[in-house]
């Protein structure tokens, strides 16, 4: 026996057994069967709310959605234009401000220049006056000297007595003439100097004026350039806008189907949102109707009826209409009776107005589940 | 299936007793599979050896030659073991007594002993398989009961007894039963299968012993007649 056992060893069986268990564990860990069963509806009756949108309604909604989209687009465009205009106005204002500032600067400069010029003029005048005074004093002195001389001469003449009266007179005349000539020369020089000063001032003024003119021209040129740039930018923006609009138009034209789909999607999204908002109401209506429903016996399998309910905002039932008959008169009758029995859905008043509108008119699908 | 309900997670979060039970069951399962594989190999080999020996035996070979073919010290198995012990006893008794009845009785006794040894060899460890098959469901059930007990004890602490609070505990407890069944089911199946195979083989050995006995009896009968004549 021992020999036999050594012949059929335990090594291989142990390895096989361990491999088997490891395999089982690995299978368990790696892919444990994920069983996500559909949660079966516990209620016997399946009355489900079906889409409230009818075909025509859908079209209308699509249209409305499209119109809304177009409106929104237009609004956006207008807003963009407004924004642009505002921007432009701002720019213009800024330019104007800059211009004004430049002008003011120029004016200030001019005034300053004028002031400095006036000052210079005044100084010059004062100098001139001082010079004139000095000259006058000199003249006076000279005259006094001359007078003294003359007196001395006259004295001497008088002393000489008539000796050189003619000579004296002559000399006097001569002196007078000389004096006159000197005065005249002096006056002439003065006049000349004045003339020169005037000319200089004039030249200065001219230069200043030219400078001003240049500055003004520059400012003008600057303004013009800015204006040009602004106009260009405007043109560019205009062009872009036009292009954008054209593109949009082209897109809208070419993708009318897309837009229709988008509109539909939007409508569906809206419906879904409203559905979420009024989920409780929907459940309530469903459970109320289910409770009130007395399912007739001996039903053939697969019967199904669609009932259209029209409600007031207060939740009262206005009308029930069989949209899709089950083909079983008793079943149809029971369904209508159930709706009427469950009728005033007072909770409708608690709904938000949007959801209320949605539930003013809706369909209920009646489908007996596993009838117990 | 969320992570907290995966099987490894449940096993690791179980209470000590339940974990011990699980460990015990895993060991039992591994050992039972070892036995299953080992016994399968042994039985298959024994079956093949028996077929080969029977072919040789009925090929018309001289029995003395067949007996001498294998050295006396080498231990043999199966029908060959039965044949050798019987033939050895026959050869030993033949010179000592002239009573054929006594010789046949001695041969039969020694062959029964050999057969019984073979039975023991073939059925080795099959009892362990039977034990695992019958006991492991109970062990697993014990783990489950213990786990559910713990779950209810902890449930008494909580304010609300929702399904979500009970579910992990019960799932965890039920894993013990699952493991017990996982160990027990193969053990049951293979116990039945292997014990049937070994019984069949033992029946063949018995048949062979009877046939060999009848051959010896025929020989002795002929010799008795000669002696009488």
Annotation keywords:
heterodimer, A: about 375 residues, alpha+beta, Fusion Protein Consisting Of Minor Coat Protein, Glycine Rich Linker, Tola, And A His Tag, Chain: A, Domain 2, 2 domains, four-stranded antiparallel β-sheet, B: about 230 residues, 7 helices, about 85% helix, about 0% strand
Task: Describe the 3D structure.
The complex is a heterodimer of chains A (372) and B (229). In chain A, strands 1-4-2-3 form a 4-stranded antiparallel β-sheet. Chain A has helices at 2-7, 11-30, 55-160, 165-254, 256-277, 279-292, 329-341, 353-359; strands at residues 45-50, 305-311, 317-324, 361-368. The longest helix of chain A has 106 residues, at 55-160. With 372 residues, chain A is an alpha+beta fold. Chain B is mainly alpha-helical and 229 residues long. In chain B, 31% of the residues are buried. Chain B has 7 helices and no strands. In chain B, 85% of the residues lie in helices and 0% in strands. Chain B has one domain (3-228). At the A-B interface, helix 1 and helix 2 of A face helix 2 and helix 5 of B.
């Amino acid at each position: 026996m021992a020999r036999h056992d050594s012949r059929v060893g335990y090594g291989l069986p142990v390895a096989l057994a361990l491999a088997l268990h490891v395999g089982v564990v690995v299978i368990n860990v790696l892919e444990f069967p994920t069983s996500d069963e559909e949660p079966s509806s516990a209620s016997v009756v399946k009355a489900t709310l079906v889409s409230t949108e009818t075909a025509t309604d859908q079209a209308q909604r699509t249209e409305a959605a499209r119109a809304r989209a177009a409106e929104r687009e237009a609004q956006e465009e207008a807003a963009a234009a407004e924004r642009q205009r505002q921007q432009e106005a701002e720019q213009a204002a800024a330019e104007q401000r800059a211009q004004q500032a430049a002008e003011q600067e120029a004016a200030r400069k001019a005034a300053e220049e004028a002031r400095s010029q006036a000052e210079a003029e005044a100084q010059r005048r004062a100098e001139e006056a001082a010079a004139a005074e000095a000259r006058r004093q000199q003249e006076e002195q000279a005259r006094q000297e001359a007078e003294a001389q003359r007196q001395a001469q006259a004295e001497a003449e008088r002393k000489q007595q008539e000796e050189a009266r003619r000579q004296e007179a002559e000399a006097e005349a001569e002196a007078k003439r000389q004096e006159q000539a000197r005065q005249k020369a002096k006056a002439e020089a003065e006049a000349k100097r004045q003339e020169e000063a005037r000319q200089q001032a004039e030249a200065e003024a001219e230069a200043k004026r030219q400078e001003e003119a240049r500055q003004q021209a520059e400012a003008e040129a600057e303004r013009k350039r800015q204006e040009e740039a602004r106009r260009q930018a405007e043109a560019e923006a205009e062009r872009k806008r036009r292009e954008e609009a054209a593109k949009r138009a082209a897109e809208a034209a070419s993708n009318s189907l897309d837009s229709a789909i988008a509109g539909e999607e939007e409508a569906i999204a809206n419906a879904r949102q409203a559905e979420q908002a009024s989920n409780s109401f929907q459940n309530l209506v469903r459970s109320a109707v289910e409770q009130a429903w007395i399912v007739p016996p001996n039903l053939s399998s697969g019967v199904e009826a669609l009932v259209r309910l029209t409600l007031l905002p207060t939740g009262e039932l206005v009308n029930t209409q069989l949209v899709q008959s089950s083909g079983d008169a008793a079943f149809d009758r029971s369904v209508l009776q159930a709706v009427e029995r469950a009728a005033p859905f007072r909770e409708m008043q608690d709904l938000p107005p949007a959801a209320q509108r949605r539930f003013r008119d809706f369909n209920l699908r009646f489908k007996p589940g596993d009838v117990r | 299936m969320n992570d907290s309900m995966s099987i490894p997670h449940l096993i690791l979060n179980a209470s000590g007793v339940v974990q011990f039970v699980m460990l015990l069951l895993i060991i039992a399962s591994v050992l039972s599979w070892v036995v299953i594989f080992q016994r399968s190999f042994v039985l298959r080999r024994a079956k093949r050896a028996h077929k080969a020996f029977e072919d040789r035996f009925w090929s018309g070979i001289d029995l003395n030659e067949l007996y001498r073919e294998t050295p006396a010290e080498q231990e043999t198995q199966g029908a060959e073991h039965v044949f050798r012990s019987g033939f050895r006893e026959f050869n030993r008794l033949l010179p000592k007594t002239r009573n054929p009845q006594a010789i046949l009785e001695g041969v039969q006794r020694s062959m029964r002993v050999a057969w019984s040894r073979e039975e023991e060899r073939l059925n080795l460890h099959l009892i362990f398989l039977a034990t695992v098959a019958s006991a492991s469901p109970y062990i697993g059930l014990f783990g489950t009961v213990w786990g559910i007990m713990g779950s209810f004890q902890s449930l008494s602490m909580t304010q609300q007894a929702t399904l979500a609070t009970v579910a992990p505990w019960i799932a965890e407890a039920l894993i013990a039963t699952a493991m017990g069944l996982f160990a027990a089911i193969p053990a049951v199946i293979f116990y039945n299968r292997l014990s049937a195979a070994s019984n069949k083989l033992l029946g063949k050995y018995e048949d062979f012993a009877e046939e060999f006995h009848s051959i010896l009896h025929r020989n002795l009968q002929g010799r008795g007649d000669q002696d009488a004549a």
